[in-house]
Amino acid sequence: MGSSGSGIERGRGRGTNNRNGSHTIGRGISGAGTQATLGLNHARIYNMTREEAPASNDVISGTILIFDVEAYALIDPGSTHSFISSKLASKIPGENSPLGYNLMVRLPVGGGVMVKNIRKGISIKIGEINLFLDLIVMDLREFDVVLGMDWLAQNKAVVDCYKKEVVIESSGEPRVVFVSDRQVIPVCVISAIEVRRLISEGCEVYLANVIDTKMDTPTLQEIPIVRDFSEVFPDDLLGLPPQRKIDFTIETLLGVAPISIVPYRMAPIELRELKKQIEELLEKGFIRPSTSPWGAPVLFVKKKDGSMRLCINYRQLNRVTVKNIYPLPRIDDLLDQLKGATIFSKIDMRSGYWQLRIAEKDIPKTAFRTRYGHYEFLVMPFGLTNAPIPFMALMNKTFQEYLDQFVVVFIDDILVYSRNREEHEQHLNIVLQTLEERKLYAKLSKCVFWVKQVVFFGHVISGDGVMLDPAKVKAIMEWRTPKNVTEIRSFIGLAGYYRRFVEGFSIIASPLTKLLRKG
């Protein structure tokens, strides 16, 4: 169990003698001394950094799963016991238990650390094998887990230092369950104070601009479960959506006459793009020629990638439209359902509005006028005042029995959340099968699957909880000083969206809210 009473401890590398007669063997394996303290057990632990482990020929380290949480592990025959870091222990299910005896872990730099707690019944997955084990809780800096001699002996493990593999004898047949990571140098982050100290000591410092690089989107066939539902992720929407129980209706105020606006002037490049996009919409069946007395003008808005989005200016139609009072859910109420979730997938519907038909009687109201003709929409266009409501109603109806169990829906985004990978496999399968059956389609490039952290409507969600999206915080911090009531109202609206994260928000914002009062 320990090394009390042993004057020499075996290890790797060349040893050195110390003054009290104990012997240190190898890189960081310390002798326990020649005398044991009464009632005190001793243990030793290998000392190594993450940088050193993959580069060392005689050390095996890599990533394992503990309760579906990735952990960086060191497999070390030089350690008498197996340990888990206090930080990781606080993130996984279960509670610490008293060890039952005092254990002194000798450190390679001298001295020791007393450990008193153990975490029992920890689920650990190495390769394709699931095991349960007890780990002593200790403050570890470089590794999440150290699997020592006690674990290796219990599992009849054979360590192949040449191949950097661990083999377990299972049913008489050796089975490789763990292959060490190759050398990876992690990013080292230091504080600005530390930088100044190093500069004052004469260290060379280089300033580099770090930019985001575009990551390749995984192919459909590379994503578990998702690859079985390729029909849900078409490259484009072709043809009208099926008849659904919900159609988009446009109810106008009584006595309102049809409104028609003269088309806007366009530059030659915009006219070419207009003609192209009209032809595409006609080919897909989303619009048709119209004789409606209604007519809205069109314009283009440039996207981030430089392409142009065709927009219909339905401002006049919206002004005379009866507003739908169907309540959109509060995003903070939705996020309250995520407690305990650790695995997430976010599904972004492809051109969601175009997956819902316009009620036949209201199609003429969607008409728009262009230089190339008069057209009307058969599917729900962007820009109508009540547009989010019917699509939200459709999504709620589609996933009614799963809402707040493992599905959150907000307009055209679906968040699937689960406590572990096994649950997530079932949940994701149900959601994708439902989309396939209802002929609802998503855009693969905007979806994320099997992640431990996801951005969802301005919030970063993970197993640790919900926090603000740094990009949104930056927008608030860089907001220019409001100069009128409208700008003050806009700023308070954005900042107020995150009031749950700011204690005493109403008091802090009161000087601004007072400016909105009349008089």
CATH superfamily of the largest domain: HIV Type 1 Reverse Transcriptase, subunit A, domain 1
Helix content: 10-25%
Termini separation? 79 Å
Sequence stretches where pLDDT stays below 50 over 5 or more residues: 1-38
> What count of structural domains?
3
The radius of gyration computed from the alpha-carbon positions, rounded to a whole number of angstroms, is: 32 Å
Strand fraction: 25-35%
Shape: elongated
Q: For this entry, what is the oligomeric state of its chains? A: single chain
| Strand order of the biggest β-sheet | 4-5-10-6-9-8
**For this structure, what is the CATH class of the largest domain?**
Alpha Beta
| Strand segment count | 25
Instruction: Give a quick account of the main beta sheet: strands, pairing sense, barrel closure.
Output: 6 strands, mixed, barrel
The overall pLDDT average reads: 79
What is the level-2 CATH architecture name of the largest domain? Roll
According to CATH, the fold-level topology of the largest domain is HIV Type 1 Reverse Transcriptase, Chain A, domain 1
Number of helical segments?
12
Class from secondary-structure proportions = alpha+beta
